[in-house]
Description:
- The structure is a homodimer.
- Chain A has helices at 57-68, 86-104, 125-135, 143-149, 202-215, 251-273, 292-304, 306-313, 319-327, 360-367, 394-401; strands spanning 17-22, 34-39, 44-49, 73-80, 111-118, 158-166, 169-178, 191-196, 220-221, 231-236, 281-289, 340-343, 346-350, 353-354, 371-377, 383-390.
- Chain A is α+β, with helices and mostly antiparallel strands.
- Chain A folds into 2 domains: 17-273, L-amino peptidase D-ALA esterase/amidase (4-Layer Sandwich), CATH 3.60.70.12; 281-401, Ubiquitin-like (UB roll) (Roll), CATH 3.10.20.
- In chain A, the strands form 3 sheets. A 7-stranded mixed beta sheet of chain A has the order 9-16-11-15-12-13-14, with helices on both faces. Chain A has a 5-stranded mixed beta sheet with strand order 3-10-8-7-6, sandwiched between helices. Chain A has a 4-stranded mixed beta sheet with strand order 1-2-4-5, sandwiched between helices.
- Chain A starts with 16 loop residues before the first strand and ends with a helix.
- Chains A and B meet through α8, α9, β14 and α11 of A and α8, α9, β14 and α11 of B.
- Chains A, B: Its main location: cytoplasm.
- Chains A, B: It comes from Acinetobacter pollinis.
Amino acid sequence: MAVGDIAMPQMHVVKGVKIGVTEAHVRYPNRRDLVIFEFVEGTNVAGVFTQNAFCAAPVHVSKKNLQTGDIRYLIINTGNANAGTGKTGMENALKMCNAIAEASHVQPNQVLPFSTGVIGEQLPIERIVDAVPKALLGKEDAWGDAAKGIMTTDTTPKGASETFELDGIPYVMTGISKGAGMIRPNMATMLSFVVTDAPIHQNLVNKLLKESADQSFNRITIDGDTSTNDSCIFAATGQAGGKTIEHEQDPRYLVLKEVLFRVMKRLAQLIVRDGEGATKFITVKVEGGANTDECCNVAYSIAQSPLVKTALFASDPNWGRILCAIGYANVENLNVENVQVWLDEVQICQDGGLASTYTEEAGVEAMSKTEITIRVDLGRGEATDTVYTCDLSYDYVKINADYRS
Amino acid sequence: MAVGDIAMPQMHVVKGVKIGVTEAHVRYPNRRDLVIFEFVEGTNVAGVFTQNAFCAAPVHVSKKNLQTGDIRYLIINTGNANAGTGKTGMENALKMCNAIAEASHVQPNQVLPFSTGVIGEQLPIERIVDAVPKALLGKEDAWGDAAKGIMTTDTTPKGASETFELDGIPYVMTGISKGAGMIRPNMATMLSFVVTDAPIHQNLVNKLLKESADQSFNRITIDGDTSTNDSCIFAATGQAGGKTIEHEQDPRYLVLKEVLFRVMKRLAQLIVRDGEGATKFITVKVEGGANTDECCNVAYSIAQSPLVKTALFASDPNWGRILCAIGYANVENLNVENVQVWLDEVQICQDGGLASTYTEEAGVEAMSKTEITIRVDLGRGEATDTVYTCDLSYDYVKINADYRS
C-alpha cells in the first residue's frame, strides 16, 4: 500500500504531445506494456540517466541520440529492462527506434528508447516491433493511460500536472513517473517523463532538467540501490505560444523553474510513497551545515540506515540510531555538542545528548504517524538539504526475497 | 541462529592476563555483565575505535588513556552503551576507571573502559562500582566466561585461540569478540579483545593491530551502520619469554602477524555468522582491480546492497542485482565488458553479460548453500580485496523493529 496522498490529479493536456499505449505482450498477456510519446517538430528534449556503469542498452542509445537532438519520439516498454543483454541488447534497442522511424518517416536517432523490468533477458523484439504501429495512433488526452502503461509492480500510477501563466499566456506542465516495482528478477527502476507546452530554448531545457532532477529524483532513496535503467526526460513543445525563453534572466524562467521543480518533486515523492514495502513517508531535512554537500550526506546517511528505517517501521523513537547515522556521515570535525534533532516538533536530541524536554511518550506519538519529518541542525553554518525516503518493513524483504515462492 | 561453524575452540591461557567476570545488574538481574582484564606490568596495549563522530564516552576515555600508555586494566560492561550521555556519561566512564584505580593502586588512566548496550541512558554507575572488587578477583583460565560476559543478544559466545612457536619458544594468541546484538534500544556494537604472551614492542603492537583490524574487522558488514562504540584491543604481555620483537625485519614478526590476522579474521567472521537475522555467510571476493580501494568499494557495494542481500536470503540467483551493485560502486571508467562474476564455481556473468555456460539450475543450486562466495573479476589489474557479510532476512527486520511489541 502506498503511503498518504497518492491520487492522480487532473492530467492537463500538453499541446504538441500525442501518447499511444498498447499491448505488446512483452512478458504478460492483457497488459498495456508499450507507450509511445510523439512530440511535435521543434520540441526541445533533455534527459538525465543513471550513473550505473552497467547501464542498460536503451540508456546508451538514448544518451547518444540526445546528442544529435531533434527528438520526436519516446518509446517505453515494461516487462523487460534490456539490461545486461550485451550486443543483442544494443541491437534490440536500436530496432525499437527503427520500428518508429520506418512507420513515421523520422530518423532512428530521433527516437529515445526506454525499457524497464527483467534484467538479463533479451527483449521479445518482434512483438514490440509488431505493436509499434498501434501505439503510434496516439492521442493528446492519454496521460493517465501512459502513467498506467509504464507501471511494473508499482501499486499505483503516478502523475503530476499544473497549469501556469507566463506573461498572460496559459501553459501546462504534466508528467508521469514509475518507481520501485519488481518483476522477477528486477531492481527498482525509476522512469519519469515531464512535458510542457511552454517555449523554452534547448540549453535551458537541459539546465532546468538537471537542476530540478537534482533536487527531486536525486534526493530520494528507497534502498540505496542505483538502478541500471533510471531515466528522466523533460521536453518543451512550445505549442502554447509566446516568445521562446532563451536566458535565465528572463523573468518567466524562475516561474517555470518553480513549476517544474514542484512537478518533479511530486513525482519523486510519489515513487517513495509507493516504495517497496513502504508504510511511512519520511522527510529528512538537514539544516545548519557548512555546505549543501554535507547536509546531503547526513540526510542520506539517516535515510539509508537500515536501523533507522526499521525503527521508523516499528514507530520506535530510537534516537540513538539517528545520532549514530549522523555520526558516520563523514562530516569533517563535526562538533556533536552543537547537534539538535527533532521528530516533527518533538526535540529528541539537544546539544548532542538527550533533549531535556523529551519524553518517551512524545517520541512514540511522533513516530506513530505515517508522515514524519526528521529534522537535524548541525549547528555549523547556513546550508540545508532535504531527502525523502520510506521505512524498511517485512514487506520489503518479502517483495524482494519471496517472489519465487 | 548463527550460520555454520561457530564453536568455541579450546581457549588457551595467555600468561600475564587475569580475567574476572561478575554480575553488576547493569540492566538485567542474574546476568554476568561486567568483565575485567588485568594485564601484568609491562604489557603493551593498542586499540582501534569507531570512526563515528558520536562515539561513546568510554571510547573517548580509552583513546585518551592509550596515549599515556602503561595500560593495566580493561573494564567492560554490557547492558548500557554509555553513548549519547553527555557530561554525566564522561564522568561515569571515568568513575569506572577510578573504581579500579582505588582498588588496585594503579592510576585511573591505566584503565580502559568499554560499554555496550542501550544508547542514551545513564549507566547505573553505583552498581558497576560496587561490583568492581568482585570482578578484580580474576583468574587466568576465564576466557570462555569473558566471551559470555561481553555478549548482549549475541546468540553465541565468540572466541579464537592459537598456539604458535617463535624461535622454538611456545606462545599463545587468544581473543574474544561480540557483535550484532541488541538491547532496547541499541545498535550493532562490535567489541574485540585479543592478547598474546609474546614479547612485542609497543610500536609493533600498534602496527599489528591496525593492519590486522583493517583486514578483518574493517572488512565485515551486516547492515552498513557504523556503531558508536566499536572497539578492538590487542595486547602483548611478553610473559612467555623470548627477546622482544622490535622491528618488522625480525623474521618472527611475519609469523606473529599471520597468527594475529587468522585470529582476528575468525573473530570478525564469527560476528557476521551471528549477524542479526543471518541465515547465510557470504564471502565477497573482488579480483582484477586497478587498486585495493576499488576492489574494497565494489565488495562493499555488493555486500551492503539490500537487493543482493534479500536475493541471497531467497536463494535467488538474481545476478542482475550483483551487476547493478558493481555498476554503482563508482569505479572510474569501468569497462563492463571485462567483468566476470561467479557464485562459488558457477560463472553467472561473462564479459558483462549472462555467461554462456550459465543455467538457472546451477545458479539456484549455488545460491541454496548456507556459505556462498561471490567472486568478481574486474579485469583491469592485479589488486584484490575480500569482504564478509550475511543475508537480509525477515528476522533482521523483526529483531530491529519488533522488540517493543
